[in-house]
Amino acid sequence: MRQVKVVTTWMFLCMMLSVLYYGTVEAMEETTYGYSEVSLSDVRQQFLEKYRQKQELMKYRDIGQADWPLVDSVQMIYEKHYQDDPDSLSVPYCTYNAKGNFYAEVVDKSHARIVLVYNGVSENGKCYLFVAEEEHFDTEGSMLDNTSLLEFYAVNVEEGKVYEAHKTTWGGAESQEYREATRE
Q: How far apart are CA 84 and CA 174, in angstroms?
C-alpha cells in the first residue's frame, strides 16, 4: 500500500512539474520570438496557408533544384503569352519527357496541347531558350506526328524579360531584339 502512495505521489509531482515547465517555455517563446501579438497557432495557420498556395502554384513533378530557373522562365513566358488563353492551364505543368528533357504544358485543347520545350542556353549564356510546340492528337487521344512550331522564346531571368524570335521554323531569321538578347 505504501508503494502505491509513493508511486502516485511521484506521478502527481511529475505531472505538476511538466505543466509548470510547459507554461514557462510557452511564456519564453512569446517574449523571445514576439508571439505576444500573434498567437503561435496564427503563425502556424499563416504558414500552412502559404504552403497550400505554393503547393497549388507548383504543379511540378520531381523538378530538380538545378532546373528551377527553367520553371521561372516557363512562368514568365506563361504570364506574358498564355495565361489569358481560355484553354490555358491554371498554372504551367512542368515535367520531363522519357529522355529526361525538361518541358512544360501550358495550353490543353480538345485535340491539341501547347508545350514549351527547353532548347538550351543562348550563346552568350544569359538566356534560357524555349520552343513553343503544338502537339496534335486524334479523337482517341493518340499523338499525331504533325507537331507545329509556334514560336521561339529566349528568357533572361535576371532581367525578367521574355524575347520572341517571331519565327515558326528551325531555320530563318529571328527578330532583332531576340538576336541582341541571345547573341545568336
A: 25
CA angle centred on 85, ends 135 and 104, rounded to 5°: 45
Distance CA 42, CA 32 (A): 17
pTM for this model (two decimals): 0.66
CA distances from residue 3 to 17, 33, 98 in whole angstroms, order as listed: 21, 44, 70
Q: How far apart are CA 151 and CA 178, in angstroms?
A: 12
Residue with cell 504533325: 146
- List the one residue out of 96, 97, 87, 106 whose CA is nearest residue 153: 106
- CB of 130 closer than 8 Å to CB of 116: yes
Spatial separation of the C-alpha atoms in residues 80 and 103, rounded to whole Å: 17
Residue 162 grid coordinates: 521574355
pLDDT tens digit at each of 184 positions of the chain: 677 777 777 777 767 666 555 555 455 445 544 444 555 566 666 666 665 665 555 555 566 677 788 988 999 999 999 999 998 888 888 888 888 899 999 999 989 999 999 999 999 999 999 999 999 999 888 889 999 999 999 999 999 999 999 999 988 878 999 999 998 6
Strand order in the sheet with 161-164: 88-96, 102-108, 112-121, 128-136, 148-156, 161-164
